Amino acid sequence: MFRTGTGLPVVLPPAKGEMLGSWLMRIAQFYGLSINSLLSRVGARDSRTGPVLHWFALRPSVIDVAQLASALRVQPSQLSTMAPPRCRPHWPTELGMCRACLEDAAASQQPVTWSRQWMHPLAVVCRGHRCWLTPVATCDLGRIRSTDELLSIRTLVEPPHGVDRDNLSDALWAQRTAFSKTGAKTPWGQAGPPTLLRMLHVADNALASASDQEMPKLGLSRGWQRSKAKDFKLEHEHGGILRLALPQGLVHRQWLMGAAGHILRRPPSRRRMLATLPDRAVKALASSWFSAWPPGLMQWISPEAAALHADQHERFCSSYGRH
Question: Which residues contact 236 (CB under 8 A, 6 or more apart)?
Answer without folding.
Answer: 85, 242
